[in-house]
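Researcher: Quick sanity check before group meeting.
Model: Go ahead. Protein one:
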Amino acid sequence: MAYVTPFHLKLMALAHRPRNTRQRRVILDELKKVTSHPTAYEVLKLVRSRMPGISLATVYRNLELLSERGVIMRLDTGGMKRRYDGNAANHYHVRCIVCDRVADVSCEPLGTIEELMGEATDFTIVGHRLEFHGYCPACARQPAKPTA
């Protein structure tokens, strides 16, 4: 059996670690500039100002990779479209049930809820996500549409 040196272990680890490419850095930079929780297509429009030739597939693949690594947050709990958040810290969101707009809720996460859920179930709770639903200010001002 061959001896694997610490140097070889480091090389093997680097080979399996995703590189921090220019495309990935630009996608992350643009996503961190906005608080609108954009879709992959909206991120593409933001990134194209700096990288005109980038494709939607490249943006989507990098967004998924960044969310898997915990660098960004992927929001796919209740809306019609998957959205992304440049803020990966635990925080809450509110979603408009009419236009699907998503906004951050500025309050501290409820740490005690994880303890309560752990006591109420046989699960080991490691985190939670919470999303509120309602009407954004613009949609709340719209007159109700008659149902047929």
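Researcher: Fine. The other one?
Model: Protein two, sequence then structure:
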Amino acid sequence: MRLLLPLLMATACLAGEPPLKPGDAMPSFALVGVDGKVLDSKALKGPVLVTFLSVQCPYVKATEGRINVLAKAYQGRVAFVGINANESESAHLRVETLEGMKARAASAGYAFPYVKDEAQTVVKAFGALCTPDFFLFDAAGRLAYHGRLDDGGGREADVKRQELKEALEAVLAGRPIVGEPRASMGCSIKWKKK
């Protein structure tokens, strides 16, 4: 039953027609982070990796260590940003508040800004459907990659191919990204009730 629950909660992040297509400009945003400061996307220089995260998603918890390793390895060359867009008003989602995010970022040792999309306007502009979901923009601010971290799913021991790292290397070298991106797998974004 333990394996079945995450599979039932999972969704493919490339389902349907995404609002952003390769070559599209990065949607702008100005969001409050766990440090209490507003992060304005206009201040981000060079290639930018935007990752949609969650405090409680098992897929995020299983991959956040690998995300952190990349953030540290590419520090100064690629700006990493984590965005939490989950609603936090429902009782079972209160951990998705800025306070819950702050605690998660501290315990996981996030090496990148972690901001809250309370209004859920940014997640809609990006077209993210699940957590984690990765959007890599080149130095010109154009979408170069939208897909998964690697082929390991929730298990680092199963990683054979690191697609996001390959995309980062290609963008930094000014090369095209080879192959079709594979959809991320994760927990669905928790939307506010209308």
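Researcher: One line on it for the slide.
Model: The longest strand covers residues 48-53.
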